[in-house]
């Protein structure tokens, strides 16, 4: 079953211009633990894309250090993307597993739209930092449609 994983970046500092905000120490730990969880759950991604914001890039790097990825890049447009943009990007993927690291409320909104109605409650009010929405579906990425995916939520709380 193909899988799309949508990730909200880990915990970030607040005292910087928004696009430049780095991960906190707790955020770096969260990102590493999220990478470990995704390595256990998924292992290999055909495609992985990250927002170009510093906190997303740092989360992405921590995940990439722990999983295998065939094709990875940064997408400047993810910083301002809405849920439809994220879904459209995912529809361009191929292979068995894709990863997108981005921002709230876009990540939870895209997950909400793609999830089956019975799975939506867990993301209806947004998601915390270092949360992965694991969406399973039948068919090809190009066929992703609202309500077509099973949804599991992996939350990595800060420990510091």
TrEMBL record:
<dbReference type="InterPro" id="IPR050275">
    <property type="entry name" value="PGM_Phosphatase"/>
</dbReference>
<protein>
    <submittedName>
        <fullName>Histidine phosphatase family protein</fullName>
    </submittedName>
</protein>
<dbReference type="Pfam" id="PF00300">
    <property type="entry name" value="His_Phos_1"/>
</dbReference>
<dbReference type="InterPro" id="IPR029033">
    <property type="entry name" value="His_PPase_superfam"/>
</dbReference>
<dbReference type="GO" id="GO:0005737">
    <property type="term" value="C:cytoplasm"/>
</dbReference>
<dbReference type="InterPro" id="IPR013078">
    <property type="entry name" value="His_Pase_superF_clade-1"/>
</dbReference>
<dbReference type="GO" id="GO:0016791">
    <property type="term" value="F:phosphatase activity"/>
</dbReference>
């Amino acid at each position: 079953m193909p899988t799309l994983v949508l990730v909200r970046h880990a915990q970030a500092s607040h005292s910087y211009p928004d696009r430049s905000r780095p991960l906190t120490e707790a955020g770096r730990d969260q990102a590493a633990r999220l990478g470990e969880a995704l390595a256990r759950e998924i292992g290999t991604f055909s495609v992985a894309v990250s927002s170009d914001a510093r906190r997303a890039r740092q989360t992405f790097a921590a995940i990439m250090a722990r999983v295998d990825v065939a094709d990875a890049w940064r997408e400047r447009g993810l910083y301002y993307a809405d849920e439809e943009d994220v879904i459209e990007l995912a529809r361009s993927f191929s292979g068995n597993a894709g990863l997108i690291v981005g921002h709230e409320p876009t990540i939870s909104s895209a997950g909400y739209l793609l999830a089956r109605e019975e799975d939506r409650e867990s993301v209806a009010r947004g998601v915390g930092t270092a949360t992965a929405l694991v969406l399973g579906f039948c068919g090809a990425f190009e066929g992703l449609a609202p309500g077509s995916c099973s949804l599991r939520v992996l939350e990595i709380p800060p420990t510091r």
